[in-house]
Specification:
The protein is α+β, with helices and mostly antiparallel strands and 197 residues long. The protein contains 7 helices and 7 strands, in the order H-E-H-E-H-H-H-H-E-E-E-H-E-E.
């Protein structure tokens, strides 16, 4: 499958040493903690960074420069399942009670319990909404997200300090070269919005 303009842009930025990411966990604050320390890190089955290769040689990882990052978080590309429940017409009574249970189920799945959200949907007779989600959605914790192929615009996080703003300004021509457009005030107090339609 051909890459969309955003994926082509990300490839180009990676050539320039940028870390680019999609659907980092939750919100902006959580997403920053989700940015890796290294490019292409390798982890063991317990989640620890592998420091040596099988011959005992130290693996040298390339550090991610936090002043050269561009990523969105799951709230930027979230599939609004709540809206789908509302529009389904299946929740005629007890809507508030359903959403209270649904939210508790989300938190339970965040804490590692599996299938809780489906159980709640079945109990309320709305599992068809879950079963009829668009194909290709990705899951990040309890967030269900669109892929870059399923939407054409998103806001992106970057380092808002002086160096980060300078670096972002330097890649604006690349964003346009790759066929994308952007909306940004040129300052560190506003995330950049990129359109790849």
């Amino acid at each position: 499958m051909a890459k969309n303009k955003l994926e082509v842009l990300f490839d180009r930025l990676r050539e320039e040493g940028w870390y680019c990411g999609w659907a980092h966990y939750c919100c902006q604050q959580c997403a920053w903690m989700d940015v890796p320390d290294y490019f292409d890190p390798q982890y063991d089955k317990d989640g620890y960074l592998i420091r040596e290769d099988k011959d005992g040689n130290e693996i040298e990882y390339k550090d991610v420069d936090l002043n050269k990052v561009l990523f969105n978080h799951s709230q930027d590309c979230q599939y609004d399942i709540d809206e789908e429940f509302m529009q389904s017409g299946l929740l005629e009574e007890g809507e508030d009670d359903f959403f209270e249970e649904w939210e508790a189920a989300r938190w339970a799945e965040e804490d590692g319990q599996e299938g809780v959200m489906l159980e709640v949907a079945k109990a309320w007779g709305v599992e068809s909404v879950l079963e009829n989600q668009p194909e290709g959605l990705i899951r990040e914790g309890s967030f269900v997200c669109y892929t870059p192929d399923m939407q054409t615009e998103s806001c992106f996080c970057f380092s808002g300090d002086k160096e980060g703003v300078k670096n972002l300004k330097a890649i604006l021509p690349i964003i346009e070269e790759m066929g994308c457009s952007y909306n940004w005030n040129g300052k560190g107090d506003m995330r950049i919005s990129i359109d790849w339609s």
